[in-house]
């Protein structure tokens, strides 16, 4: 995710880090090149270039703007929902850690149970966030669980859910041994259920893209429009055709590419969510709850927070 202070118009105009421009520059140059081809045909081979009315381009441009607007709204809604779910993950994890350290802080058995709950909570958060980017999570729990338990998690079809089951088992064990009352067990399990809801929502966003046919329609229409536009403009805009065509291509191709980034909020592109930074924040919160030394929060590198 790009975290960049607003230092004024010129700074934003010249910003490259986080801009969609590098991704769409080849398409922009291609459309500008077609504008140059249109100028050459108009000057040297005027009979080869039929005259086009701009009315069809106006109608097609309006239709394309609406399609891109709808797609951009759908993609941003996915991005924002993902950010809300990650915010809820922070809230629920902190709440469960606070409950564990507040109500299981008396006897050594209670303290051991609280430590176990927080270790499993750290493992769940770590596995969930990493699996949203990469399916391979082997090795990420070696500092939290013993070898046998870690192997069970690595071999399961849904590692995050396996850790939630371990967490519920620990809470049930604390209840059976008298470390937690009936009321407290209900409160603890409500937090675990909330974590399961967050996991399900993140998996839904990760596994269910915007319908392919809708994306294909927008993509094809944008390319056809931008390929034909220079030849429709050249008769009226003359030598400005390459620049105007490139500017329109930047707007349409840029929106298309940005929507593609926002559609997958858990990826590693500049405008996607900073899962590693959120994971580090959770680690800091959990270690603070145990009174242990904490690492430093991740900081943006060249305005980019991963």
TrEMBL record:
Cellular localization per UniProt: Cell membrane
Topology class, membrane: Multi-pass membrane protein
Transmembrane region(s): 28-45, 51-70, 212-234
Primary location: membrane
Keyword Acetylation set for record: no
Secretion signal span: none
Pfam families in alphabetical order: Bestrophin_2
Domain of life: Bacteria
One cellular component term from this protein's GO annotations in UniProt: plasma membrane
Keyword Cell membrane among UniProt keywords: yes
Keywords: Cell membrane, Ion transport, Membrane, Transmembrane, Transmembrane helix, Transport
InterPro entries in the record: YneE/VCCN1/2-like (IPR044669)
One function term, GO molecular function aspect: chloride channel activity
Entries under PANTHER family matching the protein: UPF0187 PROTEIN YNEE, VOLTAGE-DEPENDENT ANION CHANNEL-FORMING PROTEIN YNEE
Family: Belongs to the anion channel-forming bestrophin (TC 1.A.46) family.
Protein name, as recorded: Putative membrane protein
Species whose genome carries this gene: Thiopseudomonas denitrificans
């Amino acid at each position: 995710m790009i975290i960049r202070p607003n230092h004024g118009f010129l700074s934003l105009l010249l910003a490259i880090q986080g801009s969609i421009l590098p991704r769409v520059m080849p398409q922009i140059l291609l459309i500008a090149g077609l504008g140059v081809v249109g100028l050459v045909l108009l000057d040297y081979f005027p009979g080869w270039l039929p005259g086009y009315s701009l009315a069809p381009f106006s109608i097609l441009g309006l239709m394309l703007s609406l399609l891109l607007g709808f797609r951009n709204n759908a993609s941003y809604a996915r991005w924002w929902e993902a950010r809300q779910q990650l915010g809820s993950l922070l809230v629920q994890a902190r709440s469960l850690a606070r409950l564990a350290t507040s109500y299981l802080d008396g006897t050594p058995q209670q303290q051991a149970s609280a430590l176990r709950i927080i270790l499993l909570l750290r493992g769940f958060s770590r596995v969930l966030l990493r699996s949203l980017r990469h399916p391979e999570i082997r090795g990420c729990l070696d500092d939290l669980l013993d070898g046998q338990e870690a192997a069970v998690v690595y071999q399961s079809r849904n590692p995050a859910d396996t850790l939630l089951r371990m967490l519920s088992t620990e809470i049930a064990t604390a209840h059976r041994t008298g470390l937690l009352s009936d009321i407290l067990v209900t409160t603890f399990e409500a937090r675990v259920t909330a974590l399961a809801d967050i996991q399900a929502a993140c998996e839904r966003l990760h596994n269910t893209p915007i319908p392919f046919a809708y994306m294909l329609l927008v993509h094809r229409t944008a390319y056809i429009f931008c390929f034909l536009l220079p030849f429709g403009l050249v008769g009226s805009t003359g030598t400005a055709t390459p620049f105007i065509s490139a500017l329109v291509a930047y707007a349409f191709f840029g929106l298309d590419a940005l929507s593609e980034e926002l559609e997958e909020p858990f990826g590693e592109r500049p405008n996607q969510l900073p899962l590693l930074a959120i994971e580090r924040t959770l680690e800091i919160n959990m270690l603070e709850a145990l009174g242990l030394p904490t690492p430093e929060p991740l900081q943006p590198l060249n305005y980019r927070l991963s």
